[in-house]
Amino acid sequence: MRSSAGVDHPATQRRSCWINQTEIWFGIITRQAIRRDTVASVQVLVRSIRDYITTWNANPRPFRWTATADEILAKVQLGQTSVKKLVANNTE
Question: How far is Cα 54 from Cα 34, in angstroms, rounded to an integer?
Answer without folding.
Answer: 15
